[in-house]
Amino acid sequence: MRKKVYADAASALDGVLADGMTIMAGGFGLCGIPENLIAGIRDAGVKNLTVVSNNCGVDDFGLGILLANGQIRKMISSYVGENKLFEKLYLGGELELEFNPQGTLAERIRAGGAGIAGFYTKTGYGTVIAEGKPTREFNGHHYVMETGLTADLSIIKAWKADKEGNLIYRKTARNFNPMMATAGKITIVEVEELVEIGELDPENIHTPGIYIDRIIVEQGAEKRIEKVTTRKREEVK
Amino acid sequence: MRKKVYADAASALDGVLADGMTIMAGGFGLCGIPENLIAGIRDAGVKNLTVVSNNCGVDDFGLGILLANGQIRKMISSYVGENKLFEKLYLGGELELEFNPQGTLAERIRAGGAGIAGFYTKTGYGTVIAEGKPTREFNGHHYVMETGLTADLSIIKAWKADKEGNLIYRKTARNFNPMMATAGKITIVEVEELVEIGELDPENIHTPGIYIDRIIVEQGAEKRIEKVTTRKREEVK
Amino acid sequence: MAWTREQMAARAAQQIRDGFYVNLGIGIPTLVANALPPGMTVSFQSENGMLGIGPFPYEGEEDPDLINAGKQTVTEVPDTSYFSSSDSFAMIRGGHMDLSILGSMQVSEQGDIANWMVPGKMVKGMGGAMDLVAGAKEVIVLMEHVEKSGAPKLVTRCTLPLTGTHVTDFVITDLAVFEFTKRGGTLVLKELAPGVSLDEVRAKTEAKFDVGLAN
Amino acid sequence: MAWTREQMAARAAQQIRDGFYVNLGIGIPTLVANALPPGMTVSFQSENGMLGIGPFPYEGEEDPDLINAGKQTVTEVPDTSYFSSSDSFAMIRGGHMDLSILGSMQVSEQGDIANWMVPGKMVKGMGGAMDLVAGAKEVIVLMEHVEKSGAPKLVTRCTLPLTGTHVTDFVITDLAVFEFTKRGGTLVLKELAPGVSLDEVRAKTEAKFDVGLAN
């Protein structure tokens, strides 16, 4: 029997957290982030974290709450523009920052999970991103070598899981979650709905259960929208 | 308007074939192979082909019919053991052969479609596969550099397509088809069923339409099984 | 008279061909979607993992799981597909996007783009911009011709940190349209906004360019 | 008396822990699935793109779209998932498979495996074997102790072309069970088949090994 289902974030995080560890956190902006697990890490108080995540939340939500709590030592991200606290900590030298182009970040995580130690991309050639990295020419074009990325722990968000950990994501809440699922030594998923094994369509499983160690059902998630943009409804004739 | 749907293999292949070209052909064994498109290439008689495919069919079926017709100059494959004609042509010097480990072949094709010019894998380090290839050490382990692979044409097989070319595959007939869809300069898909745009679930599209140039509906496919293995039905109580 | 932002977007929309797959950056480029002539089939991609982007949702129908790369709420269209960030950038990096339209702070006469970082200011990050300029088949920069300070943005060499080198095909500003003869080739002035003179463009452009105006 | 193929498979099955994800090669390894003790949750992976493999189908229910890596018709189980070949080998190469059980022609005392090619004979190809031995957390070789000619298959150095170097953890033959102390470490004899003597194993083994038999 595989027992992957845990009662809540605290129990799922029990025994896997340590000061100084590297954590990958799924999501793009505030979309598809594991809210309960982030809160659980805040409550656990673990420190000196290196966090790999495309963004760093906003001041009072998402990974921003770990920043505010002084738990993050270094971020590996592609964009952190939505977070004023980030700016303050960074400029004050309290926070390390490694920028990766978004596609390079996504590919480094995929590579880490896929046993690819390094790969060559055109992205960033001739820019500051390539400084100090090996380069190579293929068919007359220049490429930069980037390395695979793994983490001690990945915390991700999915829409549904079965009890084996087979996952499906919803719309653009998929984003970085599938790759991070593969790149964590331990991967914990937070889902909106847990179903029995056999209820998900085997042809449409986005992440096979082999990548998932622990599962919790999300409780009281806010699912905040960063930028509400709408159009006016046309007049009904 | 995108007009991707063609009447049959002959019309879909019209204008894209040339002697000496490189063709990727989807499938694993005889499972998930584009039968109509292979027959169309045989009928077109184009020669000196380099064919990238995990296997080479059997003597009278699958890519075997292009071998029999003397159209293939070189194969890039991981396993060709099911084909006696292959052996004869190869030993007679009429056929070039490049073996890739199956995972390396799959990853090279994915890389080719994804703009990754090269990558480092442990697979094959210290074996004949690594001869002449750059190697590199990452964290004390040895890796071989393999290059991305693209083709002039990819012919693939899917279960369903909508008219935009969004695809879903069926069971293990998926295999190499999704990566090859991304790595062909032109990609033609052969499907069992064509549906209207909007009929496929956007969360479960295995290959987005951007990768698909031409679509045909399969006619009279045999879907041969290479090795029928069954168990006896239990007695009904 | 210089083009408005909407007119710049409309001019960029003219570069889009029927059937194109297009990625629009944030800012002025987002206006391009609304400027397309009717009857064209164009799919917009968002690098957070969506191909086939519809308009903003009706009020009250926003879905927190459905946003574009600018983090704005959007909607599906009938041919929408969703995928992961790695699959999304495989699509971008692999050269499958016909066109990327994005803003910039500087473009050099070699087609280098600098659009992600101003030294001394807080660095927000490059997001997907470096992948887009490296990967798209065609790159159009949409930007004001000069800085608020009046400093030229079409420059001999970018003084700001680069996003990519030799990556620009087309530059559309509020004053003029430029095209590179090829990647890393020569910059050519193709059009002037109505009432804008060649002299004004020369005065406000540091980059060397040829004049290839249609008459 | 030497172990039968079924007994070898049963011995290999003892190495499988509850919850394991396992890839079985063709030949004797396929017999391992039937030798598992009841009550264990084990998922079998097939490198052509399937996790969670059921038994062979009933006669008449074969599905041409549902085969294993040996090209045999198989069935689904309730937790089956399907994926592409690149995703499948990402799973294998990335170290996510707990165990790979495969046959071999030779295993060296350094744990090198040679199982894909005999020079002079027609080369069939390595298929997924090189990826499996390089990627799986644990690799068990199941093979006859000697060639039909009587030549040892546990050798000082492989004379056949290699599949991987320093990759073997466990070797189960019809005569004995061996374990490597670690990857690339020392080969240790752990068990003898009933009625098989240490002398017989010594005589039929070229590879240097320590004796660590339980009493």
Plain-language structure description:
- The complex is a heterotetramer, with two copies of chain A (237 residues) and two copies of chain C (215 residues).
- In chain A, strands 1, 2, 3, 4, 8, 9, 10 and 11 form an eight-stranded mixed beta sheet that branches.
- Chain A has a single domain, classed as Glutaconate Coenzyme A-transferase.
- By secondary structure, chain A is of the alpha/beta class.
- Chain A is built from six helices and eleven strands.
- In chain A, 20% of the residues lie in helices and 27% in strands.
- By secondary structure, chain C is α/β, with parallel strands linked by helices.
- Chain C has a single domain, classed as Glutaconate Coenzyme A-transferase.
- Chain C contains four helices and 13 strands.
- Chain C has a ten-stranded mixed beta sheet, with helices on both faces. In chain C, strands 7-6-9 form a three-stranded mixed beta sheet, with no helix packed on it.
- In chain C, strand 11 and strand 12 (187-192) form a beta hairpin.
- The mean pLDDT of chain C is 96.
How would you summarize what this structure contains?
The complex is a heterotetramer, with 2 copies of chain A (237 residues) and 2 copies of chain C (215 residues). Chain A is an alpha/beta fold.
Helix-strand makeup class of chain A = alpha/beta
Topology order of chain C in helix (H) and strand (E) letters = HEEEEHEEEHEEEEEHE
Q: How much helix is in the residues of chain C?
A: 10-25%
> Can you tell me the CATH superfamily of chain A?
Glutaconate Coenzyme A-transferase
How many domains make up the coordinates of chain C? Answer: 1
**In one word, what is the shape of chain C?**
globular
Unreliable spans of chain A:
none
Largest sheet of chain C: 10 strands, mixed
Structural class of chain C comes to alpha/beta
Give the helix level of chain A as a range of percent: 10-25%
Q: And the CATH topology of chain C?
A: Glutaconate Coenzyme A-transferase
Compute the number of strand runs of chain A: 11
Instruction: Please report the first level of CATH classification, the CATH class of chain C.
Output: Alpha Beta
Euclidean distance between termini CA atoms of chain A: 60 Å
Specify the oligomeric state: heterotetramer
- Specify the number of helices of chain A: 6
Poorly predicted runs of chain C: none
Quick one: overall form of chain A? globular
- The helix/strand order of chain A is HEHEHEHEHEEEEEHEE
Question: How many domains make up the coordinates of chain A?
Answer: 1
